């Protein structure tokens, strides 16, 4: 009898230990989700993209919490030179194909990865009030006129010279038009925003900038003379992720935003022409 009681006690103790062991096992935890991308995305962009890309960068940050977009705006020639010297960047947007080609040659952008995302064209501007009384493009040859242009190395500077070359082949302007206009140049600026600033401040009687530079906030600060399409140069803007970007996935996402309907709508608001 005593042995049967001892046997029953052992069985009960075993069952209690089994129940206790089962209760001590922690329930399985669901797999942790990956945290949202974070860090800094560095975008090198042509000066003429300042307003539009600032807005696109803000939109991108709202779509990617924890990401800070830092834009470096300058002349495309200055940006491609910085890339060639190894400056860290994730995205490059140029105001011409030449500087994108230079970035490709420097092995900072993979050839074929660049995409044209907008186009632009030139316009002649003068300070509000038009102190020099400019009424037509031919007035750019007026003696004593203070003309501000971008340097030839800058895309807008090269496009401005192309306009003068075309006009000089037009009987309505005369063969000496380019030479006569260049006699009035008082300064050559590093980028288009510098040209705009000098004209707005009255330090120049006229300047040549992109149409987009006088949209939105700058619209009431200057007057303009349109350049006919036959004499104008349509600027092509390519964009690409930098091949050694520190944030490659975010860089591609930024490029895709620029190319998307949302990005294109913002660019159109600032006067850019569609890539097509």
Q: Can you walk through the features of this model?
A:
This protein has 276 residues and is α/β, with parallel strands linked by helices. The chain folds into 2 domains: 39-119 and 236-274, D-Maltodextrin-Binding Protein, domain 2 (3-Layer(aba) Sandwich), CATH 3.40.190.10; 122-226, D-Maltodextrin-Binding Protein, domain 2 (3-Layer(aba) Sandwich), CATH 3.40.190.10. The protein is built from 9 helices and 11 strands. The chain has helices at residues 2-24, 50-63, 76-84, 97-105, 155-168, 177-182, 192-200, 248-259, 261-269, and strands spanning 39-46, 67-74, 91-93, 115-120, 122-127, 147-150, 185-189, 206-210, 222-226, 235-241, 273-274. The strands form 2 sheets. It has a 6-stranded mixed β-sheet. It has a 5-stranded mixed β-sheet with strand order 7-6-8-5-9, with helices on both faces. Helix 2 (50-63) links the parallel strand 1 (39-46) and strand 2 (67-74). Helix 3 runs parallel beside helix 4 (97-105). The longest helix is centred in the first third of the chain and has 23 residues, at 2-24.
Taken from the alpha-carbon principal axes, the silhouette is: elongated
Largest sheet: 6 strands, mixed
Give the CATH architecture of the largest domain.
3-Layer(aba) Sandwich
**CATH superfamily label of the largest domain:** Periplasmic binding protein-like II
Structural class: alpha/beta
CATH names the topology of the largest domain as D-Maltodextrin-Binding Protein, domain 2
The CATH C-level class name of the largest domain? Alpha Beta
Number of helices: 9
User: What's the total count of β strands?
Assistant: 11
Radius of gyration: 31 Å
The portion of residues forming beta strands comes to: 15-25%
Spans of at least 5 consecutive residues with low confidence: 1-36
Oligomeric form of this entry? single chain
Strand order of the largest sheet: 2-1-3-10-4-11
**What level of helicity do the residues show?**
25-40%
Order of H and E elements: HEHEHEHEEEHHEHEEEHHE
Could you say how many structural domains there are in total? 2
Average of per-residue pLDDT values: 89
């Amino acid at each position: 009898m005593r042995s049967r009681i001892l046997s029953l006690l052992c069985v009960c103790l075993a069952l209690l230990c089994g129940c206790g062991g089962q209760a001590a096992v922690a329930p399985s935890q669901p797999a942790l989700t990956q945290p949202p991308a974070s860090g800094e995305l560095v975008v090198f962009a042509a000066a003429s993209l300042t307003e539009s890309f600032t807005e696109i960068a803000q939109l991108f940050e709202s779509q990617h919490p924890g990401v800070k977009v830092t834009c470096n705006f300058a002349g495309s020639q200055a940006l491609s030179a910085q890339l060639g010297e190894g400056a860290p960047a994730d995205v490059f947007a140029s105001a011409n194909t030449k500087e994108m080609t230079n970035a490709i040659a420097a092995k900072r952008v993979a050839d074929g990865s660049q995409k044209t995302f907008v186009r632009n064209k030139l316009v002649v501007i003068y300070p509000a009030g038009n102190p020099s009384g400019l009424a037509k493009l031919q007035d750019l040859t007026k003696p004593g006129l203070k003309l501000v242009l971008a340097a030839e190395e800058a895309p807008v500077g090269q496009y401005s010279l192309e306009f003068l070359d075309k006009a000089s082949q037009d009987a309505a302007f005369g063969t000496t038009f380019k030479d006569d206009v260049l006699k009035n140049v008082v300064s050559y600026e590093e980028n288009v925003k510098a040209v705009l600033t000098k004209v707005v401040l009255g330090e120049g009687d006229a300047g040549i900038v992109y149409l987009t530079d006088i949209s939105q906030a700058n619209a009431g600060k200057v007057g303009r003379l349109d350049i006919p399409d036959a004499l104008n140069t349509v600027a092509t803007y390519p964009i690409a992720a930098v091949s050694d970007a520190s944030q490659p996935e975010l860089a591609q996402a930024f490029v895709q935003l620029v190319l998307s309907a949302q990005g294109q709508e913002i660019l159109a608001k600032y006067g850019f022409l569609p890539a097509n």
